[in-house]
Amino acid sequence: MRNGAISGKVFDRTLVLRMLRFAKPHASGFVLSSLLLLLLMALNLSMPLVLGKSVDTWLKPTASDAESNGFETVLLPAMLLCALGIAAFGARYVQTRITNRTGQRVVHDLRCRLFEHLSSRDLRFFDRHNSGLLVTRVTQDIDTINEFFVSGVDVLLADLLRIAGISVVLLVLDWRLALATLCVVPLILMWAFWFQRRGRVFFREVRERSGEANGFATEAIAGITTIRAYAREDWAHAGYSVRNDALRDAHLRTVRNFSWFFPGTEFLPALGTALLLLVGYQRVTNADLPVGTLLSFWFYLAMFIEPLRQVADRVNILQSAIAAGDRVFHLLDTGSELSQAKVQAAPASVAGEVRFDNVEFAYGETPVLRGLSFTLAARERVALVGSTGAGKSTVMALMARLYDPDKGRVLLDGRSLDTLPPEFLRRQVGVVLQDVFLFAGTLRENLLLGSTNCSDDMLRNCIVTAQAEGIATRLGGLDGLIHERGEGLSSGEKQLLAFARTLAQDPAILILDEATASIDTETEARLSRALRSVLAGRTALVIAHRLSTVEHCDRALVLHHGSLAEVGPHRQLLHAGGLYSRLYRLQFRSDSAASAAAPEPPLSA
Amino acid sequence: MAALTVFQFLREKTLRASARARWHQLATGALCLLLRNTLAVAAPYFTGHAVDVVVQHGERSELQRMLLMVLAFAAVTATCQWWMRWLLIGWSRHTERDMRSGLFRNMLHLQLQGLRSLRRGELLTRLTSAPESVRMGYGPGLMHALGTAALGCAALGLMISTSPLLTLVAIAPMLTLFVTLRPILHRIHLHSTELQEVQGLLAAEAQETFSGMRVVKTLGRESQRLAGFAAASQRLQAVSLRLVRQRALFSGCIELFAGIALVLIFVFGGRAVLQQELSIGAFTAFSGYLNLLVWPMIALGWTLGLFQSADANLALLEKLRALPQEGSGGNKSSAPPIIEARKLSFRYPDATTDVLQDISFCLSAGSTVGIVGRMGSGKSTLLLLLLRLHDPPRGTLFVGGMDVLDWSLADLRQTMAVVLQESFLFSDTLRANILFGSSASEERLQAALQTSCLLGDLAHLPHGVDTEVGERGVTLSGGQRQRACLARALLQEAPVLLLDDPLSAVDAETEANICASLQTAVPPRTTLIVTHRLHALTAADNILVFEAGALVQQGTHAQLLTVAGPYRRLWRASDDLSAVEAVS
Questions:
Q1: CA-CA distance, B199 to B202, in Å (whole number)?
Q2: Does A597 reach chain B within 8 Å, measured CB to CB?
Q3: Contacts of B335 (CB under 8 A, 6+ apart)
Q4: Which of A219, A295, A491 is closest, CB to CB, to B504?
Q5: Residue B298: exposed, middle, or buried by beta-carbon count in 10 A (0-12, 13-18, 19+)?
Q6: Residue A7 DSSP symbol
Q7: Residue B26 domain-assigned (yes or no)
Q8: Distance of CA B276 to the CA centre of its chain
Q9: How many residue pairs from chains A and B have C-beta atoms closer than 8 A?
Q10: ipTM score here?
Q11: At what angle do helices A521-535 and A491-505 cross, to 10 degrees?
Q12: Which one of A291, A341, B296, B502 has the largest count of C-beta atoms within 10 Å of its C-beta?
């Protein structure tokens, strides 16, 4: 995992350029806001000038008509100052609005782009990346990038312009005095940047510690029932405390570091003032310099201390924005996508023949499928059998193109899956998964998941077929609410709902992955009868650990450690005396030993 | 009073505790804050005198004396500032830690019902960003506000001593300012509360999509999820902009009014200078004081924003804390773990029907008991009540002769080891997951692995029992996850074992092995097994049959088969199932 460290360099140019490229469609907003900033600077710069000039007129020894002149020398500049102030207020307000609106637009684009990108990654990406971390990327990190556009680039430029502008004005007014005053500027800048550079190390540590604490909390919340059932609250709290303390300590180190920063920026300006007055005294007593100019200098000095002090802050914002940008771009650049390069037009109709052609697939370092080949004829019902970890779920995932195989091909009606448009494929292949995932929302939303081509009546039929009427009634009909992850529903109930969800999709190929594992026998018997009508006219692959449920399939594929061990109809395999018969007999033995009432042993049937 | 309601966050109780515990740090910090801000006015004061020296062509030594004073005071205030920040901000970080720790503990003990009323993403923001927001209020926010107040008093004092009239002129616009700002403040408050909500919504959208990716992908619903996310993002954008506009108005107004004050000083002060009632130096010092106040005043907008978001966040935290907590009885029974129900009825708080109705049974210690019935018949609920993950009514459920409500929660739960229907593993090593905080020996670990038939799987895992299992155990198969949960339960060596459909994803061969080794456990445990696989129960001492929340039959397998009833029907159904499948 990268922490977005941009080691060594203060700014990574390519990163900055890449961020700016996202702003390009909204460039007009930024240009407008920059123009307003220039205007604002001009307005601000003119104020001390007006003040200084007025003081000079007051001090002129032509005080004979002071009474009549008094108001003219005071009121005229006063009105000028008022006008400048109001103009500055307007300019700043409009500028802030424009910058923020533009910035928000840019990050909205970026946020959606990232989200879209992430959801188009293949599943291996999600197996590797903690979902909480991905959420942080599309929320907090993007917000940080917003700062880059809103209070980063623009304001930093404005501050630098202001400092430069003041310097120019000072140099024009009196270059010697200007040099004396300006010599503190590099000192303040050096101080600011030194701290900013030191601070990065501390900030990075804070980010890491905070990630660790949040990660732990996320899991504890998700696994709360387990923690409680084992009375491990103290263990969880201790685990969190360790990380929470580490986070606090990391924070304290940043606090300590930054405590040094502000005193420096307080002392250095005082030094500037002292130098200004010392040199100014010399020049005024020599009558080289009007007092008003000296005062203008003093006002200017006060004016650019603040932006100067903030330069480091701004740079900090930019830095964390760029670091966030780095993390976001890193995500945008990684994760093998399910390639769309070979996609061609969808076929007019689907027969439903599925073929695995020498497929290899590894999960990380562990190979799962080793050169697997088989064919499911159109409308054939096939059972996939094997012990835990034989690769059954992987076969299913490859058939639904949740992954692409590392080697070999998966074909539907003779066409490789990666040549079919993804939406088309997803419509044709319906999957009832082992882990049923329900979203927080209504029953209808959970069954449709955004598809629009299924009416409420059709949906009710699917619910009836899936034996889920009872659950639907209990939830309060199609508009009944389901909690996040279906909490409050039993595993079996969730499986029935998932089954209804798949039926609503009306797929040509149906994959059932351990779909009946947590359903009671009575419901299962009814479901199994309903299935017969549902499966008619579809190609079906059934993965079930109960061998009894596979007897009604046309054939069985027996997987062993990622390759095909046996294949054939149930009875043939049973008599062959291989792996299948061993698994079957074991199941049969436990069934018949239990059942005194069993009418006749299925073996002789 | 908008200005007063803004300090709600000071009611945070962790704050008082932390202030008491670290009062010396807080007091020293406050002293530094006071010194730093009152002494800050020295700079314009001495600068003003220095300007007079320059204007009146005074002695150079006098000027040097003044300038030395400027530097000396700057050095003092700089030192004070260092300590102020280190002590006060440091204190705020300590307090934040306490607050988080307390919140986490609070979450651990919330009743499940309340916990589920919030999405996980929301819970997490309550724990992470809410305390940070509250801290920004009482830490940097309060430090800045109090600093500004102290600075204001000191500056005001010097201003009055320089010229009372001019002071009045300068502060008049400031007073009108507060009237102008009140409606803006109110809107800022509203918008920041809304912003919090929308941010939570956005995070929840993303969280659900990313953790439900497998479903989203198999059903090809990426674009619908994106649409939902984009809508939330759009709302976030709109709310942020509304907030920004009010904030801009706020700081703009302060800047404007400060400007007006400066102009007024210029007009009146300028006249005084012309009429020689005021020296140029005094005039300079005066505008210097005002200047000293302008930046903190502008930053007050930022500070008030901090206060308001601190308030909004504390309100969220208070709501969380107000949710009912699990109650613990505090007693412990060492009697044999007989489990007894007396006329037990139970209904979930928001439900309209009873999940369990008038249930009575008594299970002797050391027996193996099966619980069967159709889905939704209340089997799992019974286990949850035994564990007191939900509270049964008083006088209905007893363990070891004592009402579960009188048991101390920890003792009750340590009496029972459980495999829940949903097999939850933490993203840690397999070993850590099975040990789950206990310090059991390697032999006991191996024994648990053996009984749950995991030993054979270890060879296929890259680092054996020390393999990282990933978030929720994704790198394991469903069956492996269930068996890991079983091993975790077995390691407890608790007198009662509760198994809720523990082997639904395990293949037949493994299941048979596990069942065999479970039944030979020494010493015998009281074991409750909820299952749909009836053949696993043929040797059970007792079987409870549930139907629609009622206990309809009870007895051994052989006894139950002799009478017509739900059990025989379920048993036949499992036979039918094979028959149906054989025919088709």
A1: 5
A2: yes
A3: B400, B401, B402
A4: A491
A5: middle
A6: -
A7: yes
A8: 65
A9: 501
A10: 0.84
A11: 10
A12: B502
Q: What is the CATH number of the domain that holds B538?
A: 3.40.50.300
Beta-bridge mates of residue A369: A361
Q: Does domain A354-593 have CATH number 3.40.50.300?
A: yes
Find the residue in A nearest to B267 (Cα). A74
Judgement on whether residues B147 and B64 belong to the same structural domain of the protein: yes
Residues B378 and B283 in one domain: no
Can you read off the two tokens belonging to residue B107? 């979450």
pTM of the model: 0.78
CA of B208 vs chain A CAs: smallest distance (Å): 7
What secondary structure does DSSP assign to A345-395, as a single string?
A: PPPS-----EEEEEEEEEETTEEEEEEEEEEE-TT-EEEEE--TTSSHHHH
**Would you call A231 and B413 a contact, using CB atoms and an 8 Å cutoff?**
yes
Displacement of CA A259 from its chain's centroid (Å) = 33
- Report A:244-273 residues touching B (Cβ under 8 A): 244-245, 247-248, 251-252, 255-256, 258-260, 262-264, 266-267, 269-271, 273
Of A237, A387, A532, the CB nearest to B507: A387
- In chain A, residues with a C-beta closer than 8 Å to the C-beta of B288 are 302
Asked if residue B384 lies in contact with residue B113, where contact means CB atoms within 8 angstroms, the answer is no
State whether residue B271 sits within 8 Å of chain A by CB.
yes
Nearest residue in chain A measured CA to CA from B128: A214
Domain boundary among B276, B297, B322: B322
What size, in residues, is chain B?
Answer: 584
Domain that holds residue B389: 339-423+494-583
Judge: B580–A552 Cβ closer than 8 Å, yes or no: yes
Show residues of chain B in contact with A100, CB under 8 Å.
Answer: 240-241, 244
CB atoms within 10 A of CB B362: 11
Q: Which residues pair with B138 in a beta bridge?
A: none
Nearest to B501 among A132, A218, A518 (CB): A518
Q: Which CATH number fits domain A13-333: 2.60.40.10, 3.40.50.300, 1.20.1060.10, 1.20.1560.10?
A: 1.20.1560.10
Contact A545 B112 (CB under 8 A): no
**CA B584/CA B582 separation, integer angstroms:** 6
Taking the Cβ of residue B387 and every Cβ of chain A, the question of whether any pair is shorter than 8 Å is answered with yes
Burial of B554 (0-12, 13-18, 19+ CB in 10 A): middle
Same domain? For B400 and B259 the reply is no
All CATH 3.40.50.300 domain ranges of chain A, comma separated, are 354-593
Query: For A29-78, what is each residue's pLDDT tens digit?
Result: 888 888 888 888 888 888 778 877 777 777 665 544 444 455 667 778 88
A585 touching B (Cβ < 8 Å): no
Contact B164, B156 (CB under 8 A): no
pLDDT (tens digit, 9 = 90+) per residue, B391-430? 999 999 999 999 999 998 888 988 998 898 878 888 889 9
Tell me, what's the pLDDT at A604?
31
Q: Establish if A342 touches chain B: CB-CB under 8 angstroms.
A: no
